[in-house]
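We store sequence, tokenised fold; for instance:
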Amino acid sequence: MDKTLKTSQYRATLPERVEARIESSEDGLWAYLSTKDGRLSHCYTQAANMTELLPMINDAILTSFEIPEEYRGDVGYYIPLGEEHVKIEEILNRMIAIEKQASASGESLATLTLKDAMLQVC
């Protein structure tokens, strides 16, 4: 089967949005991942900081939906952003804000949106 077709099929199995509850601990940050429709639940990952956590979140989601390694770079990447296209700088600022909120209060709630693997830098 054509890789482009197979990539589209795998992407179609992924939820468009994933809720990520971010909590800080003495070990760094923890993410509890779920979808409103229940297709993803009881999915957790952790990392030392938000820069390391975002790839771990994506790995946890793609693992949960059994996306093979060879297709992971092509199906898209979950990032914290709104409906409109944002610049990379805005994405990084949002990541920093999530980490600060989690560090200050012990917890943060973010919505991650599946976007194409290739981001356009404005």
